[in-house]
Amino acid sequence: MQAWLCETATGPDTLQWKTLPLPEPQPGEVRVAIRAASLNFPDLLIVQGKYQFKPPLPFVPGSEFAGVVDAVGAGVMHLKPGMAVASFGGLGGFGTHACVNAQLAMPLPPGFAFEDAAAFLCTYGTTHHALVDRAQLKVGETVLVLGAAGGVGTAAIQIAKAVGARVIAAASSDEKCKLCAELGADATINYSQGDLREQIKAATGGKGPDVVYDPVGGDFAEPVFRSIAWRGRYLVIGFAAGAIPALPLNLALLKGASIVGVFWGEFAKREPANNAKALMELAGWYARGLIKPVIEHRLEMHELPKAFELMAARQVRGKLVLVNHAAS
């Protein structure tokens, strides 16, 4: 097999494309011949040694991928060689093969494209958990999505619309706002222009959003939280801007608002039955055409350095997918 090997965790520039021994699945694992893998922001952090999880060196990065089971470890009964699966396993995706805990491999229904599947579990799993479970989003409520043209942002627009909510999409350029409108956003805000609070006020008729979906953090968090509606829920998804904001807690008191943490990976681990139910609902929405990953860039697996450059330069709308045309 071939894979990108991280031996120093000092950044993407040190990754090397190497030939490695084909791994054998251990008890409870399956080996997947990877057809496609997607790049997520934590993949960048983990090869920089900045992520909360620091795997022992060396390791193959790549948390999210899809492919075909080609070997099964002892004790695995629900998966068989030849089955198409998607996995969000933490490591191993940026190569031709990976072994993963069988419980982390989701069987794909017929018609689920590998490229879509590779861009699905993390973004849509996170967003369903955020909006449907943690925020208890209701029909007719208004959701403000920050970073709305990114991977989780585009998923948030689609899932909120599937639930029956009104969506205000906030992004950093007119081009990105145009994409959000094409995905179904009812209104858009270019937060690189004008006063953000005034734009939110205008888009909500002065009421403020019922739910804020924030994967960005940074300087926008406080003005947005000041704009939230009574009984609003502020979903903390991540910190793509780099800075972790500190919100004045008196704002939560004054608005009767909630600051709600969203950690899908831990939810999936602690509540596997609830996570499986959510993924089944998402698969049904995909089959009905209500949701579909936005994939702006498709690159060959050996082009991973270029993929990291695009992500670091914030030139990815939706998701970036790397493909193996012939996993062998």
Automatic annotation (TrEMBL):
Transmembrane segments in this chain: where? none
Signal peptide range in chain numbering: none
Q: Which domain of life is it from?
A: Bacteria
Tell me which residues make up the Enoyl reductase (ER) domain.
11-322
Listed SMART domains: PKS_ER
Fetch the Pfam families from UniProt. ADH_N, ADH_zinc_N
User: In its UniProt entry, what is this protein called?
Assistant: NADPH2:quinone reductase
Per the UniProt entry, what species is this protein from, by scientific name? Rivibacter subsaxonicus
